[in-house]
Amino acid sequence: MNRGVEIRDLRKKFALVRWQGFRRCVKHVTAVDGITLDVPAGQCVAFIGPNGAGKSTTIKILTGILHPSSGEVKVLGFTPWSERRKLAQHVGAVFGQRSQLWYHLPPNDTFELIARIYGLERGLYQQTRDALVDRFALGPLMDTPVRKLSLGQRMRAEVAASLLHRPKVLFLDEPTIGLDAIARQELRDLVREWNAREGITVFLTSHDAGDIEHVAGRVVVINHGRVVVDGPVAEVRRRYVSTRILRAQFQDPPRAVDVPGCVMRSQSAYEWVMEIDVTVTPVQEAIARLVEAGPIADIAVEDPPLERVITRIYREHAP
Amino acid sequence: MIRSLFDYLRLAATYVRFNLKAHLEYRGAFFSQVVSMFINDGAWVIFWILFFKRFPVLHGWTITDVITLWAVVTAGFGLAFGIMGNAFQLATLIAQGEIDVWLLQPRAVLPHMLLGRSAPSAWGDALFGFVVYLGFVRPDWPRMLAFIFLSLIVGVVFIGFAVLCGSLSFFMGHAGALADQWRNALISFSTYPPTLFQGAVKVLLYTVIPAGFVSYLPVQTLRSMSAVDGLLCVGGALLVLAAGVSAFYWGLRRYESGNLVSMNG
Amino acid sequence: MRTGWLKSVSKYSWIGYTAARSEWAYSAANVSRIIFMATVLYVFMRLWSVVYEGAGVERLGGLTEKQMLWYLVATESIIMSMPRLWYEVDHEVRTGAVAVQLIRPLSYIGAHFGRSTGERLVRFAINLVMGSLIATLFAGPIAFSLSGLAMFAMVLPMAFIIDFFGAMLVGLCAFWLESTQGIALIYSRLMMLLGGLMVPLEVYPDSVQPILRALPFAAILNAPGRMLVAPTFALFVQCLGLQALCLVVYGFGVFALHRYALRRVFVNGG
């Protein structure tokens, strides 16, 4: 029994009515064009795609906001659009652009309200709240009005708020937008930890490659209403870009060597950072050439940054 | 069913508590809004008092009736929009897709969404209504209880109608201004003695702009203290509420199919 | 010197013209104002019909039923043409923008006068035309005379100026108050009640009439209203006299306040 998310041949067509003066024109737009996907419980998926790709439409269908044109969807065993309220009890959501926390009140008040909305039993609620406050380091912030908190503190409180009712599925939409590097990393760690600890299924939508890299285990790329890429982050990265970063540290200043299909990214007296095209020169051969340059103290082979992978995928699957 | 009603009442109480707390964060502005509304309503009552000094009876209505009218309308309006402030902005909320946030919660969308905000000035109206009724009319206990009950009924009419007007947004783009006009028409017509209107206009005031349920019936009930009049009030309010709620859920079905009219050229 | 003054006037006229054009373009607000006016005119038409029927007389306070309705056309047209002057002035005081402007008071007040007059004239014209159409539809026209209309027209400018000064005073209260919204509301309600917005002052109890007639609110609403429906030369002179007096008092008030404000701004560092 999966009890995660099961999507079978999902399709969604919109009828856009436009008025050209007095004439009524109906244009049919296919937002989702046959998506089949299985997300087992406890997995953390990055759900990405360019704007207009059908991402938000899919998420709206998964959360019960929209009805599909055809196809089957089961989230935690529920059909979202017909069992919306039952599903909502087990779903949490955080929107980077829109806040669930009341702006003029301290987070504690919003938490209390959430307890009421979800009908949480008092004892269990307090237990969960205390655990979240502790782990998310919200203690001193709980009684400060939200408007006085920094963006990083607010986002931590937002994510904590979305976990109060112990949801089994969490939708995160641009959670780290606008945050500084430290706050971003903190938030990613917290999400990853909670995902591992509670077995929550996480759906992450983000334009930030770092989010995807550090939080998600799996990447699903949507374009033109279809799944174009689906696999573990590392594999996707490896498959889509045929370059590797080679970092070599030498014992003595190295001699110049010729490695075809290679671009020197940075060079110092004892270290070379090179980007090699593995379709031209396989890794083994590149290393062999480097050994010729001089005695090697250390060598590392890295995947290229995810940023580049994503750009490449979008470009590859463009019309 | 009863239990879930109690549950919603508790939820509503929580929202009212937090909405007021949020208002009080800006104490000065809140009290200034309350007082302003009080003054505004007071000016109208003073006008009618001066008017009725000169012309004591209008088709059977005296100054007491007009003051009762203003009291019950402001009290009802104030309670309605003080508690369910989002009824004011429904058209905009729909147009900007803000219902989505409410759809993600395990509650019936409409009542939950309406509770989400409170209109600060509405509390001024509510205060005015009760103060004026107690101060000018000096009712006995049965009348006071009837007044409180009727204020709630009037509030139901206002909310139902505001929901009906706001739901236009599901069917028409840029419905915000039109919805406001239509809703304001109800408020305008509610504050004048309904005995002024006859014939076709009177029919209008029980249908398209249900001011009759807000002005005539409640005051009539307080005059006669008859159960029949009271039942008519309740019936009318439930009709308006039903119309509003139906329009909303009909529109919501359309919204969920994603086929909203877009007015781009 | 003379050319300098002329230049200022033409500059403010240009500001006024631009404001008028933007006001004309803002059709949504115009439509909602007209709908509101139609509602008020309808309700009061019914009100007066019931009152006159009940009293069984042809004239009340010297006016017939139709005249009462047309009185309302005049006063509503005036009050609904009020621009949001106090709000702008309040905002300028709070942001400190006024500090720079206060150095040259005539230009500050002049610029505001230009803009608000431009807006006002357009709104008033629309209100008056539409209101007249509606009143004609509901009740039919009253006896207008060319001289009467001329007198009406001549009473308007001072009414607008007095109202302008009133709004300036309200806005300048921003120096002392956290929010001028309350004062603005009180001002507008006083106008409504004491200025004879919905009914001529003659309807009010006799004891209060003398006082009310002397107030600036009456100069803005009641005076022009009566001039439209029952103009007489005697009344005309009376109105002008009242308006001139109010203008002097108000004008003095504004300049005194302005002087005080200037001192306060520069002593406190703006």
Q: How many helical stretches of chain A?
A: 10
From N to C, what is the helix and strand string of chain C? Answer: HHHHHHHHHHHH
Question: What is Rg of chain A?
Answer: 24 Å
CATH class of the largest domain in chain A: Alpha Beta
Specify the helix fraction band of chain C.
Answer: over 70%
Number of domains of chain C: 1
Task: Assign the structural class of chain A, choosing from mainly alpha, mainly beta, alpha/beta, alpha+beta, or little secondary structure.
Answer: alpha/beta
The percentage of residues in β strands of chain C lies in under 5%
Shape of chain C: globular
**How far is it from the N-terminal to the C-terminal residue of chain A, by CA?**
38 Å
Strand content of chain A: 25-35%
For this structure, the quaternary state is heterotrimer
Shape annotation of chain A = globular
In CATH, the architecture of the largest domain in chain A is: 3-Layer(aba) Sandwich
The strand order across the widest sheet of chain A is: 5-6-7-3-8-9
Task: Indicate the topology.
The complex is a heterotrimer of chains A (319), B (265) and C (270).
Chain A (H helix, E strand, L loop, with lengths): L4 E16 L2 E17 L4 E5 L6 H8 L7 E6 L8 H5 L2 E5 L11 H11 L4 H14 L15 H13 L5 E5 L7 H18 L2 E5 L3 H7 L2 E6 L2 E7 H8 L2 E8 L11 E6 L3 E7 L5 H11 L2 E7 L3 H11 L3
Parallel strand pairs in A: 3-7, 3-8, 5-6, 6-7
Antiparallel strand pairs in A: 1-2, 1-4, 8-9, 10-12, 10-13, 11-12
Helix pairs in contact in A: 5-6
Chain B lengths: L1 H23 L2 H28 L8 H21 L6 H6 L3 H5 L5 H7 L4 H18 L3 H26 L1 H4 L4 H15 L8 H6 L11 H9 L2 H31 L8
Chain C lengths: L1 H24 L1 H29 L9 H15 L5 H11 L1 H6 L2 H34 L7 H27 L8 H14 L14 H6 L1 H5 L1 H8 L3 H35 L3
Overview in brief:
Chain B has 265 residues and is mainly α. Helices cover 75% and strands 0% of the residues of chain B. Chain B has one domain.
Q: What can you tell me about this protein's structure?
A:
The complex is a heterotrimer of chains A (319), B (265) and C (270). Chain A has 319 residues and is an alpha/beta fold. Chain A is 33% helix and 31% strand. Chain A folds into two domains: 5-238, P-loop containing nucleotide triphosphate hydrolases (Rossmann fold, 3-Layer(aba) Sandwich); 242-302. In chain A, the strands form three sheets. In chain A, strands 5-6-7-3-8-9 form a six-stranded mixed β-sheet. In chain A, strands 11-12-10-13 form a four-stranded antiparallel β-sheet, with helices on one face. In chain A, strands 2-1-4 form a three-stranded antiparallel β-sheet. In chain A, α5 (151-163) runs parallel beside α6. With 265 residues, chain B is mainly alpha-helical. Chain B has one domain (2-257). Chain B contains 13 helices and no strands. Chain B is globular. With 270 residues, chain C is mainly alpha-helical. Chain C is built from twelve helices and no strands. Chain C starts with a helix and ends with a helix. Classes of the chains: A alpha/beta (319), B mainly alpha (265), C mainly alpha (270). Chain B binds chain C through residues 28-29, 32-33, 35-36, 39-40, 43, 46-47, 50-51, 53-55, 57-59, 177, 180-181, 184-185, 188-189, 192, 195-197, and chain C through 28, 32, 35-36, 39-40, 43, 46-47, 50-51, 54-55, 178-179, 181-182, 185-186, 189, 192-193, 198-199, 203-205.
